[in-house]
Structure formats: structure tokens, C-alpha cells
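Sample intake sheet
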Amino acid sequence: QVQLVESGGGSVQAGGSLTLACVASGDTDSRRCIAWFRQPPGKGRERIASIVSAGYAVYADSVKGRFTISKDNAKNTLYLQMSSLKPEDSAMYYCAAGRYCYAESGIDYWGQGTQVTVSS
């Protein structure tokens, strides 16, 4: 079992920045991929950034160049640095881990989510 706990969400004006953190505990197998998903109100969940088992990062086109995913293995913590935020980035952000991260079907563990709201 893996427990994922996100933090760092909040309200920010367009153009601002936020950094989300996700602390993992339990069976933190490095072979799992880890990712950030988000779900805007009334819409489905979207994978926005992930680190695959080979160690490289993959981003959705909607956040490429603005968001950076990173991890601190010593702290078992995954980060998402978000800059140049837009109102359309407003969503519940979820940390996830699983066998593969390009689709929800591969995710075995979810965090509880942290809300990000960007005002214009």
C-alpha cells in the first residue's frame, strides 16, 4: 500500500505561481511511475505531468513550458512547480502512482487532491 498526501494548493491570480508537493509513504517502489493529474469542475481527470520508471518527465501540451515535475527521493516527495498560471488551470490536483501513468487505468494509488484556483 502507498499513501499519497498533497499540499500547496490555493488561490492565485493569473500569471502567478504555485508549487504543489506530494509526500509518499508505505511501499514506495521506485519502479512505479508517479504523476500529477487534475480535474476541473464538471470535467474528467487529465494527466498533466509524470515521471516514468526510466526517470524522465512527460508533460501534457497544456502545461508544457509552464509546469515542472520533480521528485526528492530522500524525502519521498513529488513536486509540481506551476508558473504563468491561467484561469483554465483551476482544478483539483491529484498525485498518483501506478504501473503506468498515461491513463487512469494504470494508476493504483491516488492522493486526496489539493485545490488550485486561478483568478483572472
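Comment: The first strand starts at residue 2 and ends at 7. The mean pLDDT is 93.
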